[in-house]
């Protein structure tokens, strides 16, 4: 066994193994760095928290927005939701009778999405139902009509970006 350990140390370029420094190599119980141990204990909660901060995971959050009584949207809330990586569904059906306002909101939402680097899609023919995919969400426009599981059969405008 000792010969194998010496061989591994020699192959990896580690310091030569001896039974004297075997005690110095023991793991610390606190998960930190022991004075004689130059390695981090990676299963420590500190490293797990640090990794989660640096690499946040997918968010499964879904935000639904609808115009308020004044026929407008709070675009700060929409932008904050986009930044947080949420999938957004924006319903402009209340604005069917106010075409100018609907087009203006649709353009502002598309501009916000483009500024953040995300596409915005209309998923109905009227352009009243908009979707901005969140973090980790893929939109396959080539194989499926957006929003349904129906195979695409020449309906190119149903899932076009706004």
Structure description:
This protein has 162 residues and is α+β, with helices and mostly antiparallel strands. The protein folds into 2 domains: 2-54, no CATH class; 58-162, 2-Layer Sandwich (Translation Initiation Factor IF3), CATH 3.30.110. The protein contains 4 helices and 4 strands. It has a 4-stranded mixed β-sheet, covered by helices on one side. Helix 3 (75-83) links the parallel strand 1 and strand 2 (87-91). Helix 3 runs parallel beside helix 4. The protein is elongated and about 85 Å long. The N and C termini lie far apart (67 Å).
Order of helices and strands: HHEHEHEE
Strand tally: 4
Number of helices: 4
Low-pLDDT segments: 25-29, 148-159
Question: In which range does the helix fraction lie?
Answer: 25-40%
Query: Might you state the CATH topology name of the largest domain?
Result: Translation Initiation Factor IF3
Largest sheet: 4 strands, mixed
């Amino acid at each position: 066994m000792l010969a194998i350990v010496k061989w591994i140390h020699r192959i990896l370029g580690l310091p030569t193994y001896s039974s004297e420094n075997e005690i110095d190599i023991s793991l610390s119980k606190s998960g930190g760095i022991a004075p004689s141990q130059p390695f981090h204990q990676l299963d420590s909660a500190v490293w797990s928290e640090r990794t989660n901060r640096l690499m946040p995971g997918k968010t499964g959050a879904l935000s639904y927005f609808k115009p308020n009584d004044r026929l407008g949207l709070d675009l700060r809330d929409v932008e904050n939701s986009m930044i947080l990586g949420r999938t957004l569904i924006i319903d402009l059906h209340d604005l069917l009778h106010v075409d100018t306002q609907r087009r203006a909101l649709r353009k502002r939402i598309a501009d916000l999405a483009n500024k953040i680097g995300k596409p915005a899609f209309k998923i109905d023919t009227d352009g009243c139902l908009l979707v901005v995919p969140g973090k980790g969400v893929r939109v396959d426009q080539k194989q499926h009509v957006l929003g349904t599981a129906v195979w695409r059969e020449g309906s190119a405008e149903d899932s076009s970006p706004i």
